[in-house]
């Protein structure tokens, strides 16, 4: 098994204003989330947030412990959440097994020492999209299905943003220290997500786009509301969103995305909204 780990420094909005396309992408875009029989992890210095993916095919994969964490094991002072976007998965947490179907989530609390990932059927491998944040308290491991989720339907087809928000790993569903994760599904004919846009100064965020049809793309908008930038993204890519940045997207087709966030605030509604006509 070969794992990949990358660490990225935080950057300010002043620096971001001067970035060309390649520099913007190298700082914020995570293009290699899934690779067969690997665990790929990217550490952002925004809130020490980790984004990654595990794709077991022919091997049973273990959650690695990168040297940069300087910890006895990965979850020594961390919590982790994952949502399965592939075939059925089997996840072992200190000997206890959890089965995750497509679009089901698992939260694992701090001090869980051994975590393994397997695919129920190697010919249809699991793809576990992973988010992790520092944790100060141990909360129990818990599986969350869409039936358990806090579900909100927003938008309208007339404004091309009719969508269903599935709040999976959030404080209205389970207890966490700071990690929050959910999944937004856009209805056919709708392409805009998180519009009107917003920022939240006390939380950073990451987006993972999937179910993007072949030969289609999503344009992710970021930056300060009056100094926006964009990154064109393909299926199963992720992007880091700093606390000072908007995080919105528009696709050439409808799609689904997973949002994850961490910071000092668990209040989902704590947002500084940006009027559509004020964006620049």
Automatic annotation (TrEMBL):
Isomerase is among the record's keywords: yes
GO biological process: D-galacturonate catabolic process; D-glucuronate catabolic process; pectin catabolic process
Pathway noted in the entry: Glycan metabolism; pectin degradation; 2-dehydro-3-deoxy-D-gluconate from pectin: step 4/5
Keywords, alphabetical: Isomerase, Metal-binding, Zinc
E.C. no: 5.3.1.17
Broad class of enzyme this protein falls into: isomerase
UniProt catalytic activity: 5-dehydro-4-deoxy-D-glucuronate = 3-deoxy-D-glycero-2,5-hexodiulosonate
Family annotation (InterPro entries): KduI, KduI/IolB_isomerase, KduI_N, RmlC-like_jellyroll, RmlC_Cupin_sf
Needed cofactors: Zn(2+)
Reported function: Catalyzes the isomerization of 5-dehydro-4-deoxy-D-glucuronate to 3-deoxy-D-glycero-2,5-hexodiulosonate.
Protein name: 4-deoxy-L-threo-5-hexosulose-uronate ketol-isomerase
Native species: Pedobacter hartonius
Lineage: Bacteria, Pseudomonadati, Bacteroidota, Sphingobacteriia, Sphingobacteriales
